[in-house]
Amino acid sequence: MMHAPLYLAPPSTARIREHIHARRLGAIVTPSSGNRVPDHGWWAADSGIFGSTYVGDEAYMDWLEERAEFADRCLFATAPDVPFNAFATINRSYPYLDRIRRLGYPVALVAQDYLEFCDWWHWEDFDCLFIGGSTAWKLSPAAAVLARAACAAGLWVHVGRVNSFKRMRYAAAAMDADSADGTLLTNGPDKHLPSVLGWTWQLLLDDDPALMEPEDLTRAWDNGCYDLAPGREVQAAPRIPALAPEPVQLTLI
Fold it and tell me: For 103-232, where are the alpha helices, taking DSSP H only?
């Protein structure tokens, strides 16, 4: 039997909040969403930087401080990041990791493209690895290795932009993810709620070791391109080579 990541949804409707209170779902809340932290159940704080309505780094910190009374139910709070750029993300996130922890939150580092080649970070500096980045990198062997290593280090693993059962199953099987989220319940909350709840049951009942077809696992990798923010043109980029054993060991120490 496969485990099922906890799916995090915006607590925007009464039906979704009922499932969050029952802990069949978790909540994900951003400063710009206008949603309140649910009265019961697990939740996560996301900066909302992947979009056009980000409030700014210091305003985000103020928002977290105002909700610190709920930090004991928070799975993670993301540090500010730079979409699709791991090196810039490390530079931006690191000043905030300890600050977020001191507010009482488990802090998440958002993994972006090429994190496997960046050694300016340490596992002990954060509590959750949030798999972000472009779709091509998110589905790459490098991202799966990092997610599995985070699990081995005792960290929470979250995967973003999960909007289908196929992607949910990949997060569970390839990354051993603890939680996931996507925009499906943002754009059609009650309409798509039965589908999202069904993903959990399918995973819990799935005993098939053939988790995904090989072409499903490698299609984005072989395309050699990265998807950018909504509305921006997709540009070609060099393929990221699979990591050799020695570099993996050196990177993850």
Answer: 135-138, 141-152, 165-175, 184-187, 189-205, 214-223
